[in-house]
Amino acid sequence: MDNCSILGGGARTLLRQAVLMKRAGYEITVAACMYGGREVCGDYLNICAEEGIKLIAQNAFVSNQTEDIDIFAVFNDYEGMRKLIEREKPDILQSVQLNITVELVSREMKMPHIMNIYQALPSFFTLPYADVFPKYHICDSQYYADFWEKHVGTKSYCVRTAASEGRCKAKNPDSHTLRFICVGLVCVRKNQWEVIKAFGKLLEMGVDARLDIWGHMDMQYVQNCLKYIEDHKLGQSIILHGFSEDMEDIYLNSDAVICGSMSESYPNVISEALAYGVTVISTPVAGVPEVIKDRENGYLSKGYQADDILEAMIRFVRDYGTEKSKQIAKNARNVYLNMHSERAVSRQLINCYEDILSDFTCRKREKAQYTVEDLKEDFSGMVDCYDRNSGGLTNSGFVKTNLWKIKYVFDYIRRSKKDCYIWGTGKWGAFYREIMTKFAPDIKIKGFVDTYKTGKFMGSEIAKPDKISMDKSCIILVGVKNQKIEILEELEKRGFCYNEDCFLLETLSW
């Protein structure tokens, strides 16, 4: 299990699966992966204690994408993880996100290992990484089950999120005021700003309604939302509350949940809303259209902008209190029972485990797999180079935690045989040049790119973006700190593709 101060959606889903299997009579051990000196998340302590689940703290690094693997942590944590698994002797290993240490140990000990992981971008699979990713995969949407199967070759399963059955939603005491809620981290990918804009337009149409937004907050994004609310005088109707541990009364006093996400696999809030009999209004993100059908068991927008969300909200308002809304509620109840109830999800999980055990027995006869020793051999040159040069690097910590990606970017550039430019003439551009000089002296830098500066930098010519060949006959390393996303977007407009023609040496935040 990934161990953070706040239990995220992926970790919460896997912990719920552990609880269901414990209640079904299986022996469960939860290992909270410690990294960077964190304490065990309080939710793990409380839930495992309540359910009688054995809880262990164990050093291991967890990544949520293929670029972000700490190769030193994999090597350092391997022996401790091997001893833990040898001691516990499990039939199945299951981890949240990408846990490469567990995967490599599972291969040595000939045990099936399942990863629970969700969103990703196709560009995360462009670089030819070593064969270290798990062969089995469970996620909460068929969309991303198919996605990982396509890009990594996993045997993937869709298991929906489970939600405990709640009491029936309370009858609205005020027949005039409709109560809407958004639940989840308030951030760009959850798209609450577009929901707020849509709700403001709904109020302009004369609908008497209130929107309450619940969840931890990305403060910069929240400031933008609050400014919009203030500028449009919506403060009496739209309230941001922050995170709440107890959501039961909030669901029971709501008429509809709005999910505006732009990037998601399948939001937990949908299964929770269905459990409480609250109508779902959602964008068509990833796996949501697999379950929510417009005006059949909920409301589905056509897109992610305010006007798209507004149209779905209007359909809900028009149906509210009619026979149509009663039929939608009945259908939504059936969705909960068949897909999201604890009984349904337990059955889905057990079927997956049985199928995986059977498949693994057959795969044991296959040729030998890539092991931790193979990985150490592949990285021996990079690790030795780091050990020799770490004391003289401007930022040795950056290189250490990003050495996995640095190696594969340099390998790719060598094979391409294209001219290579570094975009940026500040300290990060200089640092990129330093890394290349130490770890890839055979790769020659054609020059630097900068929108504002001219002349020379570190002995090489500085070119304006429009003065170099921007027809994908060159490779661009984006060596800037604060505007790298804008530069990548500009390069993409010119036909460049991330991890094919333009690169970062660090993990792409997404």
How would you describe the overall organization of this protein?
The chain has helices at residues 9-23, 42-51, 71-88, 100-109, 142-152, 192-204, 219-231, 248-252, 268-275, 306-319, 323-340, 342-363, 372-389, 396-416, 427-439, 484-493, and strands at residues 29-34, 54-59, 93-96, 113-116, 136-139, 155-158, 178-183, 209-214, 238-242, 256-259, 279-282, 299-300, 419-423, 445-449, 456-457, 460-463, 474-478, 502-503. With 510 residues, it is of the alpha/beta class. It has a six-stranded parallel beta sheet, with helices on both faces. Helix 7 (219-231) links the parallel strand 8 (209-214) and strand 9 (238-242). Helix 6 crosses helix 10 (306-319). It starts with 8 loop residues before the first helix and ends in a 7-residue tail after the last strand.
Helix vs. strand class: alpha/beta
Note the total helix count. Answer: 16
Helix amount: 40-55%
Low-confidence stretches: none
Could you report the average pLDDT, rounded to the nearest whole number?
Answer: 92
Strand order of the largest sheet: 9-8-7-10-11-12
β-strand percent reads 15-25%
Give me the count of strands: 18
**Biggest β-sheet: count, sense, barrel?**
6 strands, parallel
**Which outline best applies?**
globular
As a whole number of angstroms, the C-alpha radius of gyration is: 25 Å
Instruction: Report the end-to-end length measured between terminal Cα atoms.
Output: 21 Å
